[in-house]
Structures
1.
Amino acid sequence: EKKGTQDWYHRGMQDILPTWRWWVEGTNGGTRTDLSFDLNWDDAYNVGTSIEVKGNLKADAEYLTRLYKTKLAIEAGDKFELVYKTEFAGSIEVKLATTEANSTFATFPVVETSKKNGWSVASIDISSLAGKTVSIIALNFKSATALSNYKVQLGQLGIMAGNYAPAATPVANLMSQNALKESISDIRLIWDAPAN
């Protein structure tokens, strides 16, 4: 199904899809078929798509969903950031496995720390894994009570360095050269960028 009329040309703005689509392990009566996964093109956090998870959560069941295979060294102060939408607070956990113990997951509860454009943002301190290398990024969906209408949208996730603070690029001598006409217009911005 075609979603747009313009050519796609910017690979840097495309979403990086999960390594595994969709590897779900259900426990305590939960099964893979209880949940469905889809790309949502109509409600994305930052251009592109979001991942929509919906279905039925059985009471006290867990749905471990492996998403990414990776090799990320963790340092003190590093954070895991998840941007999501759901009406069911406390139903998501971040699970991280390390190269030191691939079959054992460190569990971090997802708690909203802020809101941005209608999306919940959870910033989770993962300093307890400092000195280790994350090999698997997974999410666990769960509920103490049965939910027949469970839905969550995943807008963005990432591991951020503890000292992550991108600096604004300085712009000098900004000039605007506009040619605005009735049937066609041209807008040109010119500036001096730093050499480095």
2.
Amino acid sequence: PAPPPPAPPPPDLTGFAYSPHRLASNVNSFDVPKEITQEWARLLGYLVGDGSCKPKSTIWLSVAENDICEDMTCLLRQLFGTVGVTPDKRSAVLRTVRASSCRGRAFLAYLGLGYVGAAEKEVPWAVNCSPEPVVRAFLQGYFETDGHVGPSGIEVTTKSEKLAKQVQLLLLQMGVVSRRAAKVVGRYGTFWRLDI
């Protein structure tokens, strides 16, 4: 048999440029990486899973699990130098992990984390173009937030059909077969579930 094709080189991120709005007050500086790392990929996975992607000046995620809260707090501190954790008003067990940085949010958009709602989320282009360890780190963050163990095994549920298809393809590229199905959830509409 023929040898497998070589792994793709990591995408070059040196083209990122940011010009702050003249009224922007939270333009925190951070070191822009030349290529996406596993830490950046895991952060993207968390945010695609449970993050709020619409704000242009804040990076935030509501989380109940202590280990994810600690990891997200460490990631934001490591990558952006600033982080805050506050109780979430919707539930006593939820906390909001947040970093305020217009430049940081613009960089995440450059990586492919659009300013979109749950139904329009997708795998960021920088993850799709990366070597397998980076893709695995993204999937780890994503499954930690949108995944759970169901009656038939591991499941992940999303409002975005495109995201479900992309995650299914990433899994298949690693040799993991999954089944995708629509799931109607009352007044919330159609969701997409992957069963592994």
3.
Amino acid sequence: PACNTSNDEGRKFCRGCGKSLQLQCLQCKVTMPVWEVFCGACGTNQQEFQQSLQSRFDGIVQQAEQQFSELKFWTALDLLAPVIECDHEFVAETIKRAKTLAARITAEQQQQQQLIDQSQQLAAQYRQDYEFVKALRELNKIPQPLQTRAIKEQVKEIQQVCSEVHTLRSQIKDAIQKRQMQGLLALTTRYLELHP
């Protein structure tokens, strides 16, 4: 143990500091003496396993940070889950970093959701008022990775309406300039349906 007191092999706790002289193998979970490097049951080198797990967890935290920067909140949180659930003391600092990052992700996710809700409400109001360009502008404020299928469909629908309104306006203007009355009523009626 850390106190460097020598103990008999049969002891379970240190006679100098009282700490446990046994631990679980990191691989197979069989109980083994703390001073042994290789597990007697599965042969796993405990030091190498620790280094491997530390390296893996560091990589996971980096991946989660990358996903977070791309606003992929759920992916980042899913990546962090095994690190946060781990209880090995030798990776305590990495676990702490993972928990801090998870808290930041959750806070940002909630803030973004509030902004999304606000943009959707404003866009709905603008649509009711036939202000399609403003509605489109509001929905486009939502970052691409956070746009749900429903939001993308709304954007597409509004773009189609804007395009049709623009086309109708041009056709009506051309028909009036050319004094072509045939079909003008249908064009005007459709235009007023979309943009009263």
4.
Amino acid sequence: ITDLAPADVVIEAVPEDLGLKTRVHAEIDRVVAPGTLVATNTSGLSVTALADATATPSRLVGLHFFNPASTMRLVEVIAGAATDEDTVSRAIDLAGALGKTPVRVRLIAPGAIPGWILHEDDELLVVDKPGDVVCHPSKAGPWSSLVGALREYTGLATVHLIFRLDRETSGVVVLAKTSAMASRLQTALQRRHIGK
């Protein structure tokens, strides 16, 4: 990691393990210059949690390149709670300079969720997520993913994504609150007893 000291930009892409990524970011933070743009390529871990492992959380930003990065044009730009706007702007500019299309991902506001709920009971949750809130539908990050946000909102340890009627960023999403309901719905979908 000491070889990174002269870098203007560092994009971390180690495996999706929070402990590993926090250790790597703490080391990167110790060796790079104050003006270095530091990004994580995480697709589901909290940028805030990673930044908290550093002495300068304002310069860490999520820069998630979709696979395969060589052909996929979209890049998610995710600010952590302490990421400053200059860092976000630099990350957006970097993505553009790389020929990518940057999309700024906002954290889901907890107060917005009740307005999205179409149906809720003890086993099922159906929401209609608006298109202006871009988030990953199924990753576990607490407020950067739909499943993570709904898990936090409901207070449940697990919420199971069953299916969505959308174009990646908006639309009706059906989730099960229990493993038993998830299994029943997935079986019904496989047997074509229910459909999207």
